[in-house]
Amino acid sequence: MPIAKQEKFRCPWSLGFDQYIEYHDKEWGVPVHDDNVHFEFLILEGAQAGLSWSTILKKREGYRKAFANFDPKKVARFTEAKLEKLLLDPGIVRNRLKVYAAVNNAKRFLEVQKEFGTFDKYIWSFVGGKPIVGKLKTLKEIKPTTPESDALSKDLIKRGFKFVGSTVIYAHMQACGLVNDHLVDCFRYHEVPKR
């Protein structure tokens, strides 16, 4: 009798639904060096504040359409009329402060790009240019913030960004691979690139 093929072990938080599994398996923790992807996650993580990531993931396509495919130059030019229209869009989280913060953050994002050349260069400087690799065995070991996320959050706030508290920023760092918080038993732990 053949032995049934064993399913790969994944971080338990990712097992809610297929889209979550796909996100975990293909994106989460992979080092990002594309400014538009960093901007996408700043908008999405800011929108998530106080909500579940699954809610945001399910609305990701709605966010792509609503926020000009996460082009910071275009989002920075959104008018008040455009923002008021977005507040009627069921494809996104219709929170006034978060929607308006996205435009503010687009403007601040462009300022960082101008100062550092790329947002990527700026954000990776907070982890010394390479991912911090955790050696986590259980979800309980994952902290909501770290000294690095505290420092990055503080600097972003000083620069005028909104919805960038340390917990939100640590989630961004995890998503964009500045840290590898896959559990050591997760098949992705060793597959995620180190740069």
UniProtKB/TrEMBL annotation:
Write the record's keywords in alphabetical order, separated by commas.
Answer: Metal-binding, Zinc
Organism from which the protein derives: Chryseolinea serpens
Its protein name is: DNA-3-methyladenine glycosylase I
Gene3D superfamilies from the UniProt entry = Hypothetical protein, domain 2
Q: Which residues bind Zn(2+)?
A: C11, H24, H182, C186
* A single BP term in Gene Ontology: base-excision repair
This protein's record includes keyword Calcium: no
One example GO MF annotation: DNA-3-methyladenine glycosylase activity
